Amino acid sequence: MKLEQNEEASLFSTTKIPDIFFSEYLSQSTGDAIKVYLYILFLSKYGKDIKLNDLSKKLALPLTTIQDALKYWEDIEVITKKGTGFIINNLQEKELHKLYNPKITFSPADIERNEKNKLRISSIEAINSTFFQGLMSPAWYADISLWFDKYGFDEQVMIALFSYCLKRSALHKNYVQVVADAWSKHNVKSYSDLEDYFQRQEVLQKIEKTIQKKLGITRPLTEYEKAYIEKWTVDFGYSLDIIEIALKKTTSKASFSFDYLDKIISDWHDRNLKTSDDVQNFLVQFKEQMKNKKEFEKKVKYNNFEQRSYNNFDNLYANSQG
Questions:
Q1: Considering the entire predicted model, what is its pTM?
Q2: What domains are defined for the chain?
């Protein structure tokens, strides 16, 4: 009986047993079957040709027990019959094919899915070998498969996700999930989307540092403060020159808050002011309106609600510069 592995044997005298054997097969198998599997796994590294009788003697097991064990492993596709011997199958690859077992069909949609599954299998194997040295636990396979479906990432983005987390020494599921959520929130699907996202983040970080410097903030910005800046730059599409107009309004205040800045900038956005010129023109017009006290007093005299609105508006722009 000839024994082979379907992957290249290790150069050193070490018999590797994948973790998936312990999590998926150990508890379901008899002691004798496990004994047979471990020994033929060891022999397969050297392409040994061994007779069943010799195997029976070596393991001190009856011949029928050896035959039953081999049949058991063959039935669950851990080993494959080949001519006069067996191939010891790669258990990790076997589990991958369980996750992505394409249906044989002539439907164009199914053919496209089959090709997609092949790419996914290839990328998951790349993740396994690159980031886990071939020892990725079975639970990761299911999670990666779920993330592919949940986020719609292409294969390059999924590999980049693991590379990103590894560089930050945070290759654990909770962190990977947080990063994946953030990328998905910014509509990352393809690798070109990811490159665009990184470029936007780089610009955003520069704006954050500029705002910190201009406001004299020496501590790191909080997540809430960063969220405000992202809102102004990403959601509103405002450049730094517009934000700086709002920053100048803090110069005569004893204290300020990002909430105060957000109210000003959000008001500009609500008024559909798109450029720094739009904002400056609005502020000039507002100052001109403020000069006409009589008209203003007449407007609010008979309307308490409008008076309250004016007072809030007045406070908001009390520090308007130039």
A1: 0.53
A2: 3-89 (1.10.10), 96-189 (no CATH), 223-316 (no CATH)
